Amino acid sequence: MESVAQEDEPQGRVPSIVRAVTILEQVASSSLPTNLADLTRQVRLPKSTVHAVCQALVAERFLTRGADGSYRLGPAIAELSAARRQRGATVHSIGISVPNSTNAFFDAEIAAARAEALTIGADFDHRAANQDVEQQNRDIVELTDSGVELLIVDPVASHGLEEVLARARARGVTIVSVNGATAGADATIVTDNAQAGALVARHLSERLDGHGRVAIVGGSPVTAITDRIEGFRQALADNPAMSIVTIEPGDNSRQAGRVAARRILDTIPRVRGIFAINDPTALGVIDVLHDAAHPPMVVSVDGSPEAAALIATNGPLTATAAQEPQRLASTAVRVGIGLANGTTMPGRTLTLPTRLVTHDDVSTYEPWGAS
Question: Which of 143, 123, 135, 190 shows the shortest CA–CA distance to 160?
């Protein structure tokens, strides 16, 4: 059977570009993430060729590669199409609801969403829910009543907003979930949180020579957190001499990190590593570890300036998987505009990759919240 991208392409067609477009079209047409073996079979090209093209597309952010090796459309696809759509933008009012006003991550999301609104001349408003699902429900009602046409929601929890979001949609509001998934959104923009958890798990395994007892400090019941923990657990399972001895509850805050760390140190002997689900939680853990004779190694997710500064000191915090809150929010607004204009189909999830920041490369890392 003849390959879809032979070298004798018609004049004016570049084989490498044809292959890249063919692969992108195949990934876009699939309702599920696609692995290398499936792609090779579907596009009928040599596996080495498909792998090389996919690597190039990942490098240029047209594809993202998950922790399981599967491929999804990357953020560059949304950004390119959004640039064209914005010329005819019909959204005049944008609102964003975030979990709290104490985490700089959410400040960065708000700032990026505001900048996108300014670009198209739209009004902008925001609310912070103090980690309370009921408060977020009230915030969404306020934003809807104020006349927002596009609502960006960074959910406190993945469930509990269904009714209020259904009412907003019934009034014609376009809804995009960002950072975590929530039922009732027209589209979802998230970090590859399973990848983030896997990256810090592998780092911890290497630093601990593949053996030791590890604790997890969890967080709120949102997909971003559950995916991080699951990615961490799966990657750690590759080292049978490492074990997770406890998963302590938390609410994503520094104070919750302190409480969990005290409980771990007081009740569980010989813990060598702690995975905190975000940087604020990790900072709280480290507040307590200052008094420990043999502090465990700590890893987390976010890439905040405070975490980067601590990693640079060669202290207990040895790695963070960095996110991009500005890109999450700006992509959410652009996708939302496309949805509102009818040029983007609803139901898509876009996943942004993360990167590991350690002492070896923290000097070249530019934190997202740095002034």
Answer: 135
CA–CA–CA angle 134, 135, 139 (5° rounding): 120
What residue spans define the domains of the chain?
15-73, 90-190+325-353, 193-324+358-364
Task: Show Cβ contacts of residue 289 under 8 Å, excluding neighbours closer than 6 positions.
Answer: 261, 265, 295, 296, 298, 316
Using DSSP bridges, classify how beta strands 212-217 and 174-178 pair: parallel, antiparallel or unpaired. unpaired
Q: Please check whether the two domains, 90-190+325-353 and 193-324+358-364, share a CATH topology.
A: yes
pLDDT of residue 66: 84
Q: How far is the first Cα of the chain from the last one, in angstroms, to the nearest whole number?
A: 57
What local confidence, expressed as pLDDT, does residue 81 receive? 58
Region of 303 please: left (phi>0), alpha (psi -120 to 50) or beta.
left
pLDDT tens by residue, 270-294: 999 999 999 999 999 999 998 788 8
Q: Which of 328, 342, 290, 340 is nearest to 108 (CA)?
A: 328
Q: Write the CATH number of the domain with boundaries 15-73.
A: 1.10.10.10
Query: What percentage of the chain has pLDDT greater than the value 70?
Result: 93
Class of domain 193-324+358-364: alpha beta
CATH number of 90-190+325-353: 3.40.50.2300
Distance CA(243)–CA(69), nearest Å, equals 24
The pTM score is: 0.77
If you ran DSSP here, which 8-state letter would residue 275 be given?
E
